[in-house]
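Blinded run. Sample ID left blank on purpose so nobody reads anything into the name before looking at the predicted structure. Input follows.
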Amino acid sequence: MLLPQWLSVSKLNTKAIGRRFVVFVALSAGLSSLPAEAGSGAYVPYSGIVHGTEGTDPVMISVVNETGIPLVCEAALAHWYSDDLGRISPGEELTFTLWHDQKTGVFNLMNATNVRMPVEALWCANQAGRTRLTLPIASGKAEAALRYSCHAGDEAGLSCEAAGG
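Blinded prediction complete.
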């Protein structure tokens, strides 16, 4: 016998219970192991994507390279993306615009399709090292301009400090 005694159904028990009921239970057990169907309806892509700059304020960012070698700057964006902001020759300045959401404090970089890309960090690097540019992430009104000055020191390597707005 393949099944334990308590699970087996004898012919005598089958007549008492009824064959239809036994078939119903057997089919029900088989159907309950099928995968559940996901919600029906049309596919809806992620709806948290925000287009445009409505409700945000522009913040002009400038980075001055006061080192003797070229500097490369990038934005670390949400969801493991990054965007190249530009290469700065010695003595030159890189400028770009971020969009600040006063409600959330988030700074956004707009992509080619006008989608807000939340900025997690700004980085600049060269042979002297790599450093993070501190963004004042806070709700409320942000400064209209942020200026960073990057220096290469013997002890500290590369550093970029906010020079005021």
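Unblinding after everyone has recorded impressions. The first helix runs from residue 11 to 17.
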